[in-house]
Amino acid sequence: MRLILEILLMGVAMMAGAYLVPGVHVDGFGSAIIAAVLIALANATIGFILRIFTFVLNVLTLGLISFIITVLMILLVDHFMTGFNTSGFLSAAILAIAVAVIKMILDSIFGTDQD
C-alpha cells in the first residue's frame, strides 16, 4: 500500500512540477506517473553506475555531479517518452528541484517519509 501511495504522490509532484516549470509538458496524470517511475528506474540503474564512476568528482563538487546525473536521467526519459517533454537542460534542472521540493512537502503532509 505504501508503494502505491509513493507512486501516486510522485505523480502528483511531477504534474505540479510540470505546471510550475515553463518548458515542461506532461500529457496527463498517467503520463506523469509513468515519467516519475521511469526517472526513478533510470536513476536507480544508469544513474547509480554513473555515480560510481564519478564518485571522486562528486565528492569534490559537493554533490553537484549527482544533481547533473539526475537532470540527465530526466532528459533521457524525455527522449524516450512521448507524453513527457522538456525544452532543455535548464527546464529539466528546474523540474528536478521543483519535484524534489514538492515531494518533500507531500511526504511531510501524508507522512510517507517515516518508517
**Termini, distance in Å?**
13 Å
- Strand order in space, largest sheet: 1-2
- Which radius of gyration do the C-alpha atoms yield? 14 Å
Query: Could you give the order of the helices and strands?
Result: HEHHHEH
What portion of residues is helical?
over 70%
Mean pLDDT: 93
Based on Cα principal axes, name the global outline. Answer: globular
Main beta-sheet annotation: 2 strands, antiparallel
Work out the strand percent.
5-15%
Number of H- or I-type helical stretches: 5
Uncertain stretches of 5 or more adjacent residues: none
Q: Structural class of the secondary structure composition?
A: mainly alpha
Number of β-strand runs = 2
Outline the secondary-structure elements.
Elements: H1 2-20, E1 24-26, H2 29-53, H3 55-60, H4 64-80, E2 84-86, H5 89-110
Antiparallel strand pairs: 1-2
Helix pairs in contact: 1-2, 1-5, 2-4, 4-5
Q: What does this molecule look like?
A:
The protein has 115 residues and is mostly helical. It is built from five helices and two strands. The chain has a two-stranded antiparallel sheet. The chain is globular and about 35 Å long. The two termini are 13 Å apart.
Q: In a nutshell, what does this entry contain?
A:
The chain is mainly α. It has helices spanning 2-20, 29-53, 55-60, 64-80, 89-110, and strands spanning 24-26, 84-86. α1 packs across α5 (89-110) and α2 crosses α4.
List keywords for this structure.
mainly alpha; two-stranded antiparallel sheet; 5 helices
